[in-house]
Amino acid sequence: LAKTTQPISMDSYEGQEVNITCSHNNIATNDYITWYQQFPSQGPRFIIQGYKTKVTNEVASLFIPADRKSSTLSLPRVSLSDTAVYYCLVGASGYSSASKIIFGSGTRLSIRP
Amino acid sequence: NAGVTQTPKFRVLKTGQSMTLLCAQDMNHEYMYWYRQDPGMGLRLIHYSVGEGTTAKGEVPDGYNVSRLKKQNFLLGLESAAPSQTSVYFCASSGGTANEKLFFGSGTQLSVL
Fold it and tell me: CB–CB of B101 and A34 under 8 A?
């Protein structure tokens, strides 16, 4: 089971680019890296998922180095509405892995005006 | 398309009382999960199901029971509520194939007095 380590909290300002790094030294060959966003009083919401190199969607980018022991979630030009907790998960879903989808404490991102 | 629906949204119990939380999904997902989230903490897996009629224990199963009689529903039961079970409960579902993302409900705030 790959454990993840990410900063407890981060602060930034509107319009800035925010990068949140997650460490996962024990990632397995078939593991994917997935990021979720959680607003207060809501369930987590999928943001982005990747296996290697770079993935980009309309919300964020995910950078994964060749050794895959870490990953960086990049949020371009953040706004106040990006204030949330961000979770990095490592694992492969499927019958044998359903119990291993583990959420850590996440990174609490606060955006200021 | 409602996604994942949890009922009730709020509930207050006295110690020793029982109750059932209902989770319903309309995405024909195979996998369903129950998590609990304590203040300032990440989500912890209580029980999960990989298909109709199957259930399995997660990280913190004690004091809870579950049933998956129908594919679209996953019930979480507390037979004798304790103050330590005061938490926010989230249900999630996924397709179950490799690296499928989780879809979460909006949560149930449970207080046990």
Answer: yes
